[in-house]
C-alpha cells in the first residue's frame, strides 16, 4: 500500500509562509532548500511549502486551493485558538459559527489556503 509523505502547498514566498506557520502552529518549519520547506505541526502530518515560481514542472495553479481540517478537543480550545489567531492578525474567511457539523471557523494562510478548525 502507498503512503503519503506530505501535503504540498504552493506559496509565493517560502520565508513568509514559514514565519506564518511557525507563529500559528507554534512549530519550527525547516528550510530544505531556498524554495522548499517542511512544517511538522501534528503527529504524522507534514505540510511542505513549495515556492510557486520554482516548481518543476511549472504549474499555473497558485495558493488557495486546499483546506486543512483541524479538530479542536472542545469548544473552549477552539475559542482560545480563534482569539489567539485573531490577536496575531490572521485573516478569517469565516468567523466562529455553529453549523450542522459543529462549531468551526476558517482561517486563511498568506496564500489563501484554508485552515478549518472545528469542535
Automatic annotation (TrEMBL):
VOC domain location: 3-119
Pfam families for the chain: Glyoxalase
Matches recorded under Gene3D superfamilies: 2,3-Dihydroxybiphenyl 1,2-Dioxygenase, domain 1
InterPro entries cross-referenced by the UniProt entry: Glyas_Bleomycin-R_OHBP_Dase (IPR029068), Glyas_Fos-R_dOase_dom (IPR004360), Glyoxalase/dOase/EhpR (IPR026275), VOC_core (IPR037523)
Protein name: Glyoxalase
Organism: Photobacterium ganghwense
